[in-house]
């Protein structure tokens, strides 16, 4: 599932290739991809609109339109956004096609491709956000696009019970972190997944805040992670490369490259698989 670094990589691609262009036509294949507001609302809301800005909050892609409305795309499990010249063969599971005004003599299309169809495309009036997109209001702090440091993290964890990993995964606490980056962040911070939030010392909170920012930034710089079983690619169809830098995720049974003295262990808790180094993480 794409997490913050993958979604940010897609956002940057769209900012470069799509912002400033007018959507001249909209085609919708699978109704499920536009289930929230329906086919007519998406076609009516996007046709003739120019995309003026590409933003992101957590795993949500948010686009400002010159009509005053906004478009949201969530990739969920298997969604991809691709931009290709008109006439390029569309892959299977291309559910939404936006024709873009030509730039430098080239007419492109932006595709929303989604084999598993958990993802969605929504067009909405931002004044209706509480009704149409309530989850956006409940999102926690975004460690990359918001002010984020140890003080903010401490405040977000204040009064929260339970293990640190589920708190990192909670989009209401911190927006954008999923299973891959939660494991990588906790390994870099030297913290075991089941440490309770209230057991962390001020120094550990400071280190954790730094590791959240650093791991996510490193992953963005690598274009995100593409795993063997995942479909994640950027808008030009290229894989990310951060999977080569994973220290725990997908490495259970292999030697920890940080300490070189223990093998990466794996446990399943709360339905989620967790990889960690028994020696580095306490
Ligand atoms: Zn280790």
Q: Could you list some keywords that capture this structure?
A:
class I DNA-(apurinic or apyrimidinic site) endonuclease activity, globular, binds zinc ion, N-terminal domain of MutM-like DNA repair proteins, 27% helix, damaged DNA binding, single chain, four-stranded antiparallel β-sheet, Helicase, Ruva Protein, domain 3, alpha+beta, 282 residues
How would you characterize the overall build of this protein?
27% of the residues lie in helices and 21% in strands. By secondary structure, it is an alpha+beta fold. The protein has 2 domains: 4-138, Alpha-Beta Barrel (N-terminal domain of MutM-like DNA repair proteins), CATH 3.20.190; 150-276, Helicase, Ruva Protein, domain 3. β9 (265-269) and β10 form a beta hairpin. α7 packs across α8. It is globular and about 55 Å long. It starts with a helix and ends in a 6-residue tail after the last strand. The mean pLDDT is 96. Bound molecules: zinc ion. Residues 256, 258-259, 262, 277, 279-280 line the site of zinc ion.
Question: Could you give a quick summary of the protein structure above?
Answer:
Residues 2-119 form the Formamidopyrimidine-DNA glycosylase catalytic domain. This protein is of the alpha+beta class and 282 residues long.
Bound molecules: zinc ion
CATH topology of the largest domain: N-terminal domain of MutM-like DNA repair proteins
Give me the secondary-structure category: alpha+beta
The helix tally amounts to 8
Mean pLDDT: 96
Number of domains: 2
Separation of the first and last Cα atoms: 27 Å
Query: What is the string of SSEs from the N terminus onward?
Result: HEHEEEEEEEHHHHHHEE
Globally, the shape reads globular
Question: Which regions are unreliable across 5 or more consecutive residues at pLDDT < 50?
Answer: none
At the first level of CATH, the class of the largest domain is Alpha Beta
């Amino acid at each position: 599932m794409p997490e913050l670094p993958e979604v940010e990589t897609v956002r940057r691609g769209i900012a470069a290739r799509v912002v400033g262009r007018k959507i001249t036509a909209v085609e919708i294949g699978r109704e499920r991809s536009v289930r929230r507001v329906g086919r007519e609302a998406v076609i009516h809301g996007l046709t003739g609109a120019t995309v003026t800005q590409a933003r992101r909050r957590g795993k949500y892609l948010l686009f400002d339109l010159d009509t005053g409305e906004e478009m949201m795309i969530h990739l969920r499990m298997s969604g991809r956004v691709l931009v290709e010249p008109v006439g390029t063969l569309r892959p299977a599971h291309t559910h939404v096609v936006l024709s873009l005004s030509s730039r430098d003599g080239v007419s492109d299309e932006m595709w929303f491709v989604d084999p598993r169809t958990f993802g969605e495309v929504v067009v909405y009036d931002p004044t209706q956000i509480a009704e149409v997109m309530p989850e956006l209001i409940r999102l926690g702090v975004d460690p990359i696009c918001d002010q984020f440091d140890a003080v903010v993290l401490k405040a977000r964890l204040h009064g929260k019970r339970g293990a640190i990993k589920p708190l990192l995964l909670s989009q209401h606490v911190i927006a954008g972190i999923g299973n891959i980056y939660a494991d990588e962040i906790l390994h870099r911070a030297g913290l075991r997944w089941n440490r309770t939030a209230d057991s962390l010392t001020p120094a550990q909170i400071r280190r954790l805040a730094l590791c959240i920012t650093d791991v996510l930034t490193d992953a963005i710089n690598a274009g995100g992670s593409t795993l063997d079983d995942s479909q994640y690619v950027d808008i030009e169809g290229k894989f990310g490369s951060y999977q080569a830098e994973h220290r725990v995720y997908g490495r259970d049974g292999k030697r920890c490259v940080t300490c070189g003295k223990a093998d990466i262990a794996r446990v399943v808790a709360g339905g989620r698989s967790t990889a960690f180094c028994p020696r580095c993480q306490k």
